[in-house]
Amino acid sequence: xxxxxxxxxNNTFDFDISEAELSNLDTLQTxxxxxxxxxxxKSVKAEITEADFNNKxxxxxxxxxxxxxxxxxxxxxxxxxxxxxVKTAKQIDFIKAPMPGLILxxxxxxxxxxxxxESLLILEAMKMENxxxxxxxxxxxxxxxxxxxxxxxNQLLIEFEN
Length: 162
Prior knowledge:
Layout: E1 4-9, E2 13-18, H1 19-23, E3 26-29, E4 34-39, E5 42-52, E6 57-62, E7 65-72, H2 74-81, H3 86-89, E8 94-96, E9 101-106, E10 113-114, E11 119-125, E12 128-133, E13 138-143, E14 150-151, E15 156-160
Antiparallel strand pairs: 1-2, 1-7, 3-4, 4-5, 5-6, 6-7, 8-15, 9-11, 9-14, 10-13, 11-12, 13-15
Organism: Algibacter pectinivorans
InterPro entries: Biotin_BS, Biotin_Carboxyl_Carrier/Decarb, Biotin_lipoyl, Single_hybrid_motif
Protein name: Biotin-requiring enzyme
């Protein structure tokens, strides 16, 4: 299955880029943040001047022009469609399935203290293993699934204590 990415530049231009298109780029890292890119016999030098890996946003300098770029994959878009984001994650008291799938592994138990971004479980969906992480630090109040369970989109998976 081909992965694709939604790329937004300067909050104005939207692009869909496939994994195949990315593999056709000839890139060479020339410094810690510098890259030489060759595509369709056109050469471009780019430098990543700022990077926010958690939000998948970057500021890139090409030919003395600055571009703000955000990159999203299918899971990021599903999470956004559900109304979840880094800004709202601190208020979340439960985790719901972002898509239908199969629970492969549970990494937590009821009463366990977890830290923000700690892996809670592995959900297999569309032949991909997706790690579902804690949106905030807290204590696990209940777990509504077990290993091997098939889940539907928006089904309750884990609840946090308030």
